[in-house]
Known about the structure:
By secondary structure, the protein is mainly α. The chain is built from 8 helices and 2 strands; from the N terminus they run αααααβααβα. The protein has helices at 18-32, 45-60, 70-100, 107-132, 137-142, 153-156, 169-182, 193-221, and strands at 150-151, 189-190. α3 packs parallel to α8 (193-221) and α4 (107-132) packs across α7. The chain is globular.
Amino acid sequence: MDEAKPAWRRRTKAEHRWPVVLALIVLGTLQWYLPDRLTPGPRWLFPLIEAVIGVVLIAANPVRMRRDTPRLRMLSLGLITVASLGTVWTVVMLIRDIVSGHDTGSAGQLLATGGGIYVMNVLTFAVWFWELDRGGSVARSLGSDPYPDFLFAPMTSPDMAHQDWEPWFADYLYLSFTNSTAFSPTDTLPMTRGAKFGMAAESAIALVTAALVVAKAVNALG
């Protein structure tokens, strides 16, 4: 009987760790190369903290996401919390610089910084969505929670998707990218208040950042 259920509602093979690791490496690298004025403390501080926590998590689940304990769960949430604080700080400092008329460099430099922050925003919320949906990757592979935080298209049209389909990190990355670009849900619906708040926060950050950066860059070119 269990095999008749879609994969996202039953116990399945654990998800690979490497896509999330790659996303966090890119996020840490972008934080490292930000201008000093946009970073909280030394530019290496947040990437170093993220790297240390990441090594512990990789040691616990080096290939696939199989082990889950309260401590590992706290570390996982702590890692993305640290990354989020770095992203939020950067956005706030950039907005402050633009609004106050601080020197933000040439139009090209400003657009490069804005583009980096845009990617940071997408990656940060992709990891958040991946971590929170139905309790995280390990909980999803166990099929312990039948109520999703995000309703993906294959869930609403099971006849149009393979029976073994289930959301992995690439799906949450796509969700984050489209939400940050369209400033609204596209093909994936938020089902819980936490999911709605996360998508709203990401859209707000993307909208404010894009509007201010583009306006400032156009003004600089003029």
